[in-house]
Amino acid sequence: MPVTPITPATPSPPAASPPTLSALGLFTVLLGAALPLIDFFIVNVALPTISADLHASPAVLELVVAGYGVAYAVLLVLGGRLGDMFGRRRLFLAGMAAFGVTSLACGLAPSAWALVGARVAQGAAAALMMPQVLATIHSSTSGRRHARAISLFGATAGLSMVAGQILGGVLVAADIAGTDWRAVFLVNVPVAVAGLVLTARTVPETRSANPAPVDGPGTVLLAVSLLTLLAPLTEGRAAGWPLWTWVSLTAFPFAAAAFYLVERRADRAGRTPLVPPSLFELPGMRRALPMVLPFGTGFGGFMFVVAVAMQEGLRYGPVRAGLALTPLAVAFFVASLAGPRLVSRYGSRVVTAGGVMQGVGLALLAFTVARDWSGLSTLDLAPALALAGFGQGLQLPLLMRFVLTGVPAERAGVGSGVMVTTQQTSLALGVATLGTLFLSLAPSHGMRDALVAVLLVQVTGVVITTLMSLRLRAMDQRLS
């Protein structure tokens, strides 16, 4: 009787290991995170020279700032969705290349309106690049490496906002090769080229396992919602609050409600909306994301108001005004690096303690300003700025970590887009609201009293954020 030979079973191919982000790859994506935030603030100190060179009116100068910020905020969530669909590394490369080209266009702009157009395009490029940073980190790191990477992202975000104003002052004052204000944009070009080379060599490709098509109605309605809110708030003061600003603000709640209803209907119908309402059922999105709004509003307003007060009130030059913020930047960086170790031991109480420290630092700064305005030196400001910066550094990186806790890898792009959109919108709101308050009070009450009033308003916001941080206690086990 013939014996049938037994064919050995073919072993299954091993499952592909998840992509891993190397240390150099992390540096590369953090470089991509720094560029958009630096450019949001770097232009502040260059506006006077831009005005003189291009004969730009105050309203057009506001558009140089607002055009970038609004385009950036409006397109962030869409940028995250496109990264989920087509690959985050691919979109990061596209965004980095576009950012370099549009920065060159800004630096070579022959007129004020050409600069406005280039800034809008630059904001759109930033919106392609930025969401891929957190999505890549979220998808290619885990455990302690993930916590460390998120903390470094938070440190990078905070430092970039401060460094933007410092770098802007240095570049304008240096007037490299006669470039004057144009250097604040042209400096991005070699950085973008280096970023492209590093990305091609060090950043792994990640994408959603089940990418969803772009939600057209949701994208349009989100854009309309953000435009009707941010455009009048950022442009209204310089334009003299014309009728269109009030019509736009009136339309905002209706546009926001329509966006929510369309997204909820798509979610219930089994489709994938641009911003799934179910995303906000995650504990991090529900408890930590609302804290990003008051925190970012205070931070954005503070950076704008302090820059104006130092240059126009204290008559600091752009370099001195920027360097005066160094204690805040150093303290922020130190605190953000210590955050992961502290939160593993003390949990969300670290965020609460950071809020208390920030509030005390701002109150001390208000007292210092009120006591001796005319003779105020950078050394006098240093203790209060360092204390406030340390408190901010204990909050922002950890808030970002709490927000993304529990977000599945396939939703990393949209989750990151929602968080960064909230952050960017709050920064713009801070400049619009606290900046408008300061500039409204300064002519009648003087720079000193206007600055003190804004600082005390910000302290109130910090108290609110600190109280909100108590709701994070329920999430401590998730981060242990």
| C-alpha Rg (nearest Å) | 23 Å
Structure annotation, total helices: 18
Question: Which architecture per CATH?
Answer: Up-down Bundle
Order of helices and strands: HHHHHHHHHHHHHHHHHH
Could you tell me the strand content as a percent range? under 5%
Mean pLDDT: 85
Structural class: mainly alpha
Biggest beta sheet attributes: none
Which properties best describe this structure?
single chain, 480 residues, mainly alpha, Growth Hormone, Chain: A, 18 helices, 0% strand, globular
Plain-language structure description:
With 480 residues, the protein is an all-alpha fold. It has one domain: Growth Hormone, Chain: A (Up-down Bundle). Helix content is 78%, strand content 0%. It has 18 helices and no strands. The protein has helices at 23-42, 47-54, 58-86, 88-107, 112-140, 143-174, 183-186, 188-202, 216-239, 243-268, 283-287, 289-313, 318-323, 326-346, 349-371, 378-404, 412-468, 476-479. Helix 1 packs antiparallel against helix 5, helix 9 (216-239) runs antiparallel to helix 10 and helix 12 (289-313) packs antiparallel against helix 16 (378-404). It is globular. Residues 6-10 have low confidence and may be disordered.
How would you summarize the topology of this molecule?
Elements: H1 23-42, H2 47-54, H3 58-86, H4 88-107, H5 112-140, H6 143-174, H7 183-186, H8 188-202, H9 216-239, H10 243-268, H11 283-287, H12 289-313, H13 318-323, H14 326-346, H15 349-371, H16 378-404, H17 412-468, H18 476-479
